[in-house]
Write a structure and sequence with these properties.
Elements lengths: L1 H14 L10 H6 L3 H19 L13 E15 L5 E8 L3 H9 L7 H9 L3 E8 L10 E4 L2 E7 L2 E7 L2 E4 L11 E14 L2 E14 L2 E12 L12 E13 L3 E13 L7 E25 L5 E11 L4 E11 L2 E9 L4 E9 L1
Antiparallel strand pairs: 1-8, 1-17, 2-3, 3-4, 4-7, 5-6, 8-9, 9-10, 10-11, 11-12, 12-13, 13-14, 13-15, 15-16, 16-17
Helix pairs in contact: 4-5
Amino acid sequence: MKRMFLIFTIIALLVFPLFAQEDLDLEESLQELAGKGAQAYVSPIVSAFGANMNSGWYDGAPKAKILGLTAQLTIVTMLTPMDDAEYFSVDSKFKFSRSQAADIVGGSSVGGIEDYVIDAVVNQEFLVGMNGPTIIGPEDEYIKIVFPAQTITVTTDVGDQEVDLNEYELILPVGGLVDDLEYLPLVVPQLKVGTVYGTNFSLRYLPALALTDLGDLNYLGFGFEHNPKVWLPVPLPVDLSLAFFTQTLELGEIAKSTSTTYGITASKTFGPKLFNITPYAGMMLESSKMEFKYEFDRELTETETVTEKIKFELEGENSARFTLGSAFKIGFVKLNVDYSISTFNTVAAGFSFVF
C-alpha cells in the first residue's frame, strides 16, 4: 500500500505541472489582477490543458463479446504544444488599493486635498490599460497598468470639486510563472475493465493530495467504449466503438478544470493474443473549460479593507479532433502511441499491464 501511494504521489506531481513548482504562487498573482487582465494572463494554458485531458483514453475498440473479463492498468502521458502568447495587452476595469491610489494621486497636482482624492480613486472602478507577460511569459518582466489622464469629481468638506489626474503607470509584482514552457505535459493513471456486451469502462483517479500551498489536488475521470458489433448479425472488417469520457481536476478552491469528449473509434488487431499490433483511429468531439475563483483583501483605508470575490471561466479552443495511433502488445505488457490533430495537436502514449 505504501508503494502504491508513493506511485500515485509521483504521478500527482506530474499531473498538474504548472502548480507543482516550488516558486509558483498562482493565487497571489491573480490577486493582483482583475477582469480581462486576469483572464488574459492565464488563457495560454487553458486550451492546451483541455487538449491533454481529452487525450489518451483509448488504444483500440473493445471486442464484440458478451462477456470477456479483462483489466488494464495504464500510465497515460500527454504532451501538447503551448500557444506562443507570452504577452498580453487588454483594456480592463480595475479597482485600486489605497496605496496604489496614493501613487496615482502623487503623480498629479491636487492642492491640499490629497486624502479626499485618494478616497475618490479607491471607491471607483476605472478602465485602464493592462499589458505584460502571461503565465508562460518571462519571469523577470512585470505587468503594467496604465491609468489614463482624466478628470474626476471629488467630494470634500466644502463641496464637490473637479480634479485633473495625470496619466500614471503602475508596475504590478506579477511576471510569468512558467517561463519558456513550450509543451504542456500531463500524466495520469487509468484503469480499464471489460468486456461486458462489447463495453469497456475506464476510470482515472487520484486520491486527494496536498500538493501545494494552494490546497488539495483532486482528480476524477470516467467513461466507456461500446462496440455495436455485439448486436449485429453480420461481421464487420474492423472493431468499432462509440465512446464517451468526462473528467474533473480541482486544485483547492482556486482552479477547476473539466473536459468531455465523445465520438467514434475504429481498430483492427493483427497477430495472436499475446503478441499483436492494433492500429486505431478516432473522430471525437470535445469541450474543455477552466474555472478560476479566489478572494483578496483590498485596502480602503489604513485600518479598513474590503474582500473582493473574483470568479471567471475560460473555454478551450478545441472542438473536434482526429486521432491516429497504434498499440503494441507483448505478453501482458502493452505500449500505445497516438497523435491527435486539432486546434491544439496532442501526442499521447500509454504504458499498460493487461490482466
